[in-house]
Specification:
Length: 268
């Protein structure tokens, strides 16, 4: 009887340990699943958090246009820049240099043009540049909002540090662009801060010119609120690993009232 009680007691302890181990295993599996579910963000979840943290997707969809006033320091001179982008595709960049206003990258939905820096005359861009612009203006207010409708694909890459900050890395593949008569891949890599879910950098390969084949880089910082939406007020553009040219926003206006005639190619 004593041996039987002893065996029963041992079996009871063994069963108790097995049940405890099962509970512990299930608990650890649950924690593991919870951790993966919480921290393994998909590309669309990252974009959703980005819109949520910067004013809400519905408010972004209501945006009809943006005017940005900025300045860039060139050889000790502060050069004012005004950039207008509208939802209908019209856009314009105005540079004030030595008292003269020079229009660049002006687009009215059909014609892309700008002023010649030497003659100040308005000149139309070539057809290839115009066709590429027709695709680019679809990215309003950014490339993410309608990326599926525009035929783009979005992919989450391995997490990576950008400029010392832990980031989610996303790969956006747009429709091919034309470069010197040939189709070229149009891929942009974006880096989203893991804490704020805002993009702080982007990289894309330079397709033409002396820097062809190198990786161009844009750094975004100093996010500020404008009528409920958040925008970066500092942008540095250059090559990856090199010194960039910084553009500082002095003011941003939303839904500006613009005379559309300013986008039209002027008659001589």
């Amino acid at each position: 009887f004593g041996i039987t009680i002893s065996l029963l007691f041992c079996n009871f302890n063994r069963i108790k340990k097995i049940k405890t181990m099962k509970k512990t295993t299930l608990f650890l599996l649950f924690i593991s699943f919870l951790g993966n579910h919480t921290f393994s963000q998909t590309a669309d979840e990252i974009i959703s958090s980005y819109y949520e943290n910067t004013g809400g997707l519905e408010n972004w969809k209501k945006l009809e246009g943006i005017t940005m006033f900025a300045s860039v320091n060139q050889m000790g001179m502060e050069i004012p820049i005004e950039m207008i982008k509208l939802k209908n595709g019209n856009q314009l960049t105005k540079i004030t240099f030595q008292g003269k206003e020079i229009n660049q990258n002006v687009y009215d939905g059909e014609v892309l043009w700008g002023n010649n820096f030497m003659t100040q005359e308005a000149e139309k861009a070539d057809q290839e540049s115009t066709d590429n612009m027709k695709q680019e203006v679809l990215d309003f207010p950014d490339a993410f909002m309608n990326y599926k409708e525009n035929g783009y694909t979005l992919e989450k890459m391995e997490d990576e540090d950008f400029d010392g900050t832990s980031c989610f890395k996303l790969k956006l593949t747009k429709k091919p662009m034309m470069v010197d008569g040939k189709e070229e891949q149009n891929v942009v890599f974006y880096y989203f801060d893991k804490d704020s879910f805002v993009p702080i950098g982007q990289q894309t390969e330079v397709k033409s010119g002396q820097m062809k084949g190198q990786m161009g880089e844009v750094k975004l910082s100093d996010y500020q609120e404008v009528d409920g939406l958040y925008f970066p007020f500092s942008m540095s553009q250059g090559l990856k690993g090199g010194e960039g040219q910084t553009i500082v926003m002095t003011k941003i206006e939303l839904n500006p009232k613009v005379d559309n005639s300013i986008f039209t190619f002027p008659k001589k």
